[in-house]
What does this fold into?
Amino acid sequence: MAFPGTGKIWMNGKLVEWRDANIHIATHVIHYGSGVFEGARCYATPKGSACFRLDAHMRRLQHSAKIYRMDYALDLAGWNSAVLETIRANGMKACYIRPILYRGYDSLGVNPLTCPVDAAILLWEWGAYLGQEALEQGVDVKVSSWSRMAPNTLPAMAKSAANYANSALIKMEALADGYAEGIALDVSGNISEGSGQNVFVVRDGMIYTPPLGSSILGGITRDSVMTLARDLGYTVTESIIPREALYIADELFFVGTAAEVTPVRSVDKLTIGAGTRGPITKALQQAFFDVINGDVPDTHGWLTYVYPAESSLREPRTAAGATR
It folds into this structure.
């Protein structure tokens, strides 16, 4: 992924040039990680550009902000409108969407309450997070030596910048050891999540995923995949999953806004199943991509179209690899 370096960024209600979207070095978020953010996607579909579950992502942004006592004068409809305005201003057909709320410039200290709450929305082109080939071939992962935060330390349900320092340690360790990703355990030694993905285990035709109490982020793609799995007739159970269940799984896969639905072919150098994408993973992948690409009716109301019908003749910029 490379930033475009051009285009418009939404900052506190105004569209500014990419190069001018700056903050002061003394801004609170830089020193204390006092920010919450979201990651969503806009996909190119036969009916036009569509944001996937925009309402759910913006609602989670508001919930994260509430947990961190960050009030901002924009309601859900306002956030949705701001995202769509930014996409249109950049003329993008498909993109990754990053809204962020952060403590701004006023003073430095652990107490953030004197600092203003600022907001921004930026977009960029981003293909398959773990590589296009990973969607079919899967990835090799390790169980990280870094655990997810214990309950009542940092709120795992908030998508906060501070939490992602933990994610970065998990990711860097995995890469240094020759793996694509890491899977972290919770404080009790049970499966939590990847550095930025939720985890699903398939065994004997049943699908399992860790519950919110295992220090996971309540992923919107996670919720979507659970819904699609049930639509296909599979049983999905949220349950505590011990580490060793990874090694004896028939199938294992990651889900997330960036990762979409990516199979895991090995954990700690132990092959998962046949070492290839399993049939249930493939079925869920297909169902997910069918929805986000607009190949099937949007029965769950998950797609928000960006451009009005009368502007269908415009030539928006295409994001390479942003769809299947």
In short: The first helix runs from residue 28 to 32. The first strand starts at residue 8 and ends at 11.
